[in-house]
């Protein structure tokens, strides 16, 4: 056998192995596309108004500099979101955080890191601060399993674990409750 035949057979074997390798790995990359971290779409500097499916009324308004939608579970994550949640009188609670998450159907919001909740300017001023807050806009309920501080005229309330009704402004702190009365200025 001469050297040209040997070289041709080696090149042919290399081409077959390379082709088989490419064909095998091509199937793996297309199967893992959903878990690759790629988004369906990304929005920049936007405002989104979500409507309640049952009544067609505004459930919440969301403003953020960036939002991504996960192609697998259809949830959305965002950076520095501002949620505007209407109460029963159509006054808006402002809810801000460093990060946010919205469920596929928009019936649950999860806010994380430096969460700030400011009650509507109409009526008694209320401010809440926590690191985690879960909001269920269709039920006007917000919950937090961690430390929460609620400031309103005349008092500062601190504790762990929160359940609040945003429509009625009724708050329930689950444990480690401390209250400080602050005289009005």
Could you characterize what this model shows?
By secondary structure, the protein is of the alpha+beta class. The chain has a single domain, classed as lipopolysaccharide transport protein A fold (Sandwich). 16% of the residues lie in helices and 52% in strands. The protein is built from one helix and eleven strands. The protein has one helix at residues 3-31, and strands spanning 41-51, 58-69, 76-79, 82-86, 92-96, 99-102, 109-118, 127-136, 141-152, 155-165, 170-181. Strands 2-3-6-7-5-4 form a six-stranded antiparallel β-barrel. A hairpin with a 6-residue loop joins strand 6 and strand 7 (109-118). The longest helix has 29 residues, at 3-31. The N and C termini lie far apart (103 Å). Keywords: Cell inner membrane, Cell membrane, Membrane, Transmembrane, Transmembrane helix. InterPro entries: LipoPS_assembly_LptC-rel (IPR010664), LPS_export_LptC (IPR052363), LptC (IPR026265).
Q: Which blocks of ≥5 consecutive residues have pLDDT under 50?
A: 28-35
Instruction: Tell me the major beta sheet.
Output: 6 strands, antiparallel, barrel
CATH topology: lipopolysaccharide transport protein A fold
Globular, elongated, flat, extended or rod-shaped: what is the shape? elongated
Largest beta sheet: strand ordering? 2-3-6-7-5-4
Mean pLDDT: 82
Count of folded domains: 1
Count of separate DSSP helical elements: 1
Could you say which structural class the secondary elements and strand pairing correspond to? alpha+beta
SS strand fraction: over 45%
